[in-house]
Amino acid sequence: MNEFMTKNLYDLSHTKANELLKDCIYPWEALPKIGEFIISLGAALDENIYEKKGENIWIAKSAKIAPTADITGPAIIGENTEIRHCAFIRGNALVGDNAVVGNSTELKNVILFDNVQVPHYNYVGDSILGYKSHMGAGSITSNVKSDKKLVVVKNGEVRNRNWIKKVWSNDRR
Length: 173
Fold this sequence. Notes:
Elements: H1 6-9, H2 18-21, H3 34-43, E1 50-54, E2 57-60, E3 64-65, E4 70-71, E5 75-77, E6 82-83, E7 88-89, E8 93-95, E9 100-103, E10 106-112, E11 117-120, E12 123-129, E13 140-141, H4 161-171
Parallel strand pairs: 2-5, 3-6, 4-7, 5-8, 6-9, 7-10, 8-10, 9-11, 10-12, 12-13
Antiparallel strand pairs: 1-2
């Protein structure tokens, strides 16, 4: 499963979550830790660049936030990022620099690296999108399948089924 290892999937120089992710062998290990990490990181952000806008919500002063966007903390919105009309950020969201969260897009428990685009009508939940990722319209990432069974990562054989089940079932709200 080496190809699924965090160090093989992501260039950690393009995210403020590098301290969280560098200690994770697999990216899904970071999912239950995102909220706590954001709160810790937010408290240390440069007040000349970021403004605290609510309970555990930090938004870069250079970010463009539509007045109809709904942001619930913990959340960090990076520099020069655009949050468009009716975007819904449900918490535990670390949005990188120069990112786009489009109209009617929903985020929950996510890390978006720098330059990520989720332009419109997307749901991004329990996910990590790497540098310059781009989702087309109407895309969904989630840890729940339509048959309600848990997602299992495979590489020729089933691995870590019990560990994945424990992490994801504890993270659901």
